[in-house]
Here is the input.
Amino acid sequence: MNKNKEQLLNKRYRAERRFRLYGQSAIFMALLFLTIFIFKIFSTGYSAFQKTWLIVPVNFDAEMMMIDQNPSKEDLQDADYYDIALKSMADLDQNANDDQKNQLKRMVSYFFEKEIKNEILNNPSLIGKTKEVYLTASDDLDQVFKGNYPRDLPEDQRRVSDYQLKIFDQLVAKGKVESKFNISFFTYADSREAELAGIASSFMGSIFSILVCLMIAFPVAVLAAIYLEEFAPKNRFTDFIEVNINNLAAVPSIVFGLLGLGVLLAIFHLPRSTPLVGGITLSLMTLPTIIIAARASLKAVPPSIREAALAMGASRMQTTMHHTVPLSMPGTLSGTIIGLAQALGETAPLILIGMVAFVNTIPGSPMDPAASLPVQIYIWAESAERGFVEKVSACIMVLLGFLIIMNLFAQIIRHKFEKKWS
Amino acid sequence: MNLILFTFIVLLGFTSYYFGRRKAYTIQSSKKRLTALPQFYGYYLAIWCAIPAFIIFSLWAIFEPTIVKLLVLSDYSNQGYLDDELNLIYEKTKSLSRGQFTGEITPFIEASAEKYLSLRSIAQSSKAVIVLSIIIASVAYAYKRISSNSRTREPVEKFLNAVLFTASLAAILTTVGIVFSLIFQTIDFFKVIPLFDFVFGTHWYPAKAFVRDSSEALDPTMYSDTFGAVPIFAGTFFIAFIAMCVAIPIGLMSGIYLAEYASTKVRQYAKPLIEILAGIPTVVYGFFAALTVGPFLKELGTSMGLEVSAESALAAGGVMGIMIIPFISSLSDDVITSVPQSLRDGSYAMGATKSETIKRVIFPAALPGIVGSILLGVSRAIGETMIVVMASGLAANLTFNPLESTSTITAQIVVILIGDQAFGDPKTQAAFALGMSLFLVTLCLNIVALRVVKKYREKYE
Here is the structure.
C-alpha cells in the first residue's frame, strides 16, 4: 500500500517536471526562432554595406571625348565619355575580340561613364593624361568578390562568364579590386541594377508618410481620448464609439488599404503612390492604438489631482487641460511612438495605394511618388537578381534599427518622465 | 495662394487673441470685475476670427471646382456631347491651362482654357475678399460683444468640448469609411457574379477576367466559373490553422511558464524578448519564409523523398505561427496572472502539485480569457497579408496538403490590386468583395473575442 502511494507520488512529481519542461522548451523555442531569424538577416545582410570597386586606368583622351585641349566647364559637361569608358574597359585585355570587349564592359555598372565624368569634372587637368579610376563593379562580380556566388556552377548557369572571371581574378591578383563602405546604398534611389540600388527614396518616403501620419493621428487621437476619458457621458453612443475603437484596432491592415484605395484615391482623387495618401491611411490605422494608450495614461492620473484642481475653482476644461493632460503626456507619447513604429513597418496598405511603383528619384515632398522601407523590402525580395538578396537583408537591418530606436525612445520617455502614483 | 490665405487666417487668429486679451486688461484696469481669465477673452475672439473663415474657406474648396467646371462646360451644353466626352474636354482644358497639353490644340479648347483661367483667377480673388471680409465682420461683432459682464469662458469651453467630441467621432468615421469603400464595389460585383457562385464556386481564376472595353456590354456568362471563392476561403483557414498549430502550444505554454514558474529575473528578460517577435514587420517575416524556410522545407522534403513545393502552405503557416506566438503568450500570461491567488492557495492546500493546480484549477478558471486570446490570434492570422503574399502561392489550389501551395484572401487582394486598377471591372470588384468577407469574418471574431475577454475580466475584478 505504502509502496503504491510512493509510486503514485513519484508519478505526480514526474508529471510536474515534465510540465515544467514543456514550459521551458516553449520559451526556448520562441527565443530560438528569434535568434535564428536575427542571425539569418545579419549574416546575409552585412555584406551589402560593402561595395566592390574595380580600379581601371582611364586615358582621358581629348580627341576621343570630342573636346579641345583646354575645354570650358560646359564642354566637359557635354563631352562624350562613352568611348573612353568603353576603351578603358576594353584595354584590360589587349587581345580581346568584340564579344569579349562587350563582356569586359559588362564587368562594371552601366553607370561607369558617369563615374569617369565625375572624375574629370573634379579635376579638369587630367585631360590627355591617364589615371586610375574607381568604377562600380557589376552586381554579379560584387557577389563573386564577397563569396556569395557559387563559382563552381557550370558556365551556362552563371551570369558571369569564365572569361569575365579570368580577367577579374587577374585584377584581384594585381590588387586592382577594392571593397569600400557602400555609401551609395544610403544616398541612391532605387534602381533596376542591384549594384546601384539604394534606400534613399524609400527612406524619404517612409519619413514623409510617418510625419503625415503623426500630424493627423496624434492630435485627433489625443483629443478623442480626452473626450472619452474625461467628458463623455456614460450612454449608448459612448459605448458604441468604444466598441468601434476596439474593433478598429483589430481590423486587418489590408482593409485599411482598401479604404485608402476606395475612398482617398477613387473618391477624393488624391495623388496615387504618394506618402500623403500613405500617411493618411496609416494614420487611420494608428488612431486606435494611440487612443487606447492615451486613455490608459489619462486613467492612471489619480482622481485626487482632478479634485484638487476643481476645489481651487478650476472649470472641468481647465482641470483637464492644465493638469490631467500634461500629467498623462509621457504615457501618451510613448504609446504614440509605438503606434508610429507599427505604422513604419506596415506594408500591405501601402501596396494597395500604389506606393509599390518603381521610383528612381528621391521624393522632395509628401506629394511626390515614393516607396517606403518595408515596401522596398517587398520590391527587392520579389526581384530575381542575386545581388538584391543582401540588399533586402540590409534594408531590413536599417528598418529594424529604426524600430529598435523608436521603441527604446518610447521606453525612455515612459521611465524617465512618467510619475509613479501610489 | 491657398497656403498664403491659410497662413493669413492663422496669423489673424493670433492677432485677435492678442486684442481680446488686451481688451480684457483695459476692462480690468477700469476697476471692473472680469467674468473669466483674460486669456479666455483672447480665445473667444480668436475662435470668432478663425472658425467662420475656415468654414467659408473649406466650402469654397469643395464647391469651386464643380462650379468652374459647370461654367466652362456651359459653352458645350447644346452641342449634344455625351458626359464622358464632356469630361474629356474638361480634362484637356485643364491640362492646356497648366501648359502640359500634348495633343492637338483646337480653337474650342483654347477658348475654354482661357475661360477656365479667367474663372479661376476671379474665384481666387473673390475668395480672398470674401474670407477677409467675413473675418473683419465676425471679429468686429465679437469685439463689440465682449465687455465686463459678458461670458467668454463658457462659449470657449463649449467650443472645445465640441472639438473633442468631433475628434472622438473619427473612429466611427473610419469604420463608416471602411464599410462605405467596400460595400458599393461588393454590390456591383454581386450584380455580375451571383452570390451563390462566389460562395460555393470552386474555381478561382481572376486572370481570366481580362480588362473589358467599357463600350462592350457586360456578359455575365463570360465570368462563370471564374470567381468561385471556395479555394481561397479554404486556403485562408488552412494556413491560419497551420499557424495556430504552431502558435497555440508554444504561446500558451510560454504564457503559463512566465506567469506561474518563471523567476522575476527570467520573466524580466524573456517577456520583452518574446514580444520583439510581435514588433518585427510582417514583410520581414515574409522574406524569411520565402527565402529561408520555404527552400529549407523543400530540401528537407526532397531528402525524405517527399515532394514539397517551394511555396508550401507549411512555410507560410509556420512562419505566421511564430509571428502570433507573442500575442497568445502575453495575453494568456495576463489572464493567468489575474486569476485570484486564493484559487491557487486552495488547490495547494489540498496537496496538489503546481502543474496539477495549473491544469485543473487555473486553466479552467482562465479558459474564457485564453479562448479570447486565441480568437484574436486567429483573426490576426486570417488578416495577415505580407507573409502569404511573399511565401505562399498565388494560384488558388483547393488542397489540404500542407506541402502544396495554396492562396489566401489577403494574397488574392494584393495580386488583383497591385499595379493599375480599373474601377468598375469585375476583377477589381472581386478584390473588394474578398475584402468585405475578410472584414466581416475578422469583425465577428474580434467582437466575440473582445466580449469574452471583457466578461472574464469583470468576473475577477
